[in-house]
Amino acid sequence: MTQVSLTNLIAGARAGLLVSFPTDTVPALAAIPEKAGLIFVAKQRSQDKPLILMAASAEDLWLYVKGNEKEYKVWQEIAGKYWPGGLTLVLPASDRLPKVMNPIDPTTIGVRVPNNAIAQTILAQTGPLATTSANFSGQPPLQTMAEIEVQFPKVLTLATTEYQGEILGVGVPSTVAKWTGINWQILRQGAIKLEISTDNQI
């Protein structure tokens, strides 16, 4: 059994172990950014599929991206409207981001703040984590901690007793929007319908 308490899961993540916990979309498989390679190995995931950097607040994520003043303003407006929530923004990465998060193209990174109290509690104490859905690459995302425990027996999963009453995810991955330098390009239509106005462009 690798189901653990919230305290032990946070400690495990901080120690560099792979962990899994619920989010507002699908359960996350997560590790500290420097240990992101563990996720690629566990999922048998191709190196050209970057991970998402998830944090408890937008402020925790701006250090990992870089842009000019106008770009930051546009990004912060979109973040203010849709975060916390099921929207991943793919932005230019700063030097602070470990290359292992996106081995093929370390110049960009997807960032997101989940709308889930448990995920936010964990992320507030671990700092931003490298995340992705919990499943073998190419297979549907697993929806429960029990399924994740069977498929990933070495991953620390959050004991179900820790989140009774918590609203579980919608079961649909996040919408992914990439910043092109001028406006947004939708890479994946997911949990959120993104309304892009001229205010959200340069």
Could you walk me through the main structural features you see in this protein, from its secondary elements to its overall organization?
With 202 residues, this protein is an alpha/beta fold. The chain is built from 5 helices and 10 strands. Strands 1-8-2-3-7-4-6-5-9-10 form a 10-stranded mixed beta sheet, with helices on both faces. The protein is globular, with a radius of gyration of 16 Å.
What does this entry show, briefly?
By secondary structure, the chain is an alpha/beta fold. The protein is built from five helices and ten strands; from the N terminus they run E-H-E-E-H-E-H-E-E-H-E-H-E-E-E. The mean pLDDT is 92.
Total DSSP E strands: 10
Shape: globular
Largest sheet entry: 10 strands, mixed
Instruction: Indicate the structural class.
Output: alpha/beta
Strand residue content:
15-25%
- Oligomer classification: single chain
Helix content: 10-25%
> What topology, given as strand order, has the largest sheet?
1-8-2-3-7-4-6-5-9-10
Mean pLDDT figure: 92
Q: Ranges with pLDDT <50 over ≥5 residues? A: none
Return Rg in Å.
16 Å
Strand and helix order = EHEEHEHEEHEHEEE
* Count of alpha and pi helical runs: 5
Distance between the termini: 51 Å
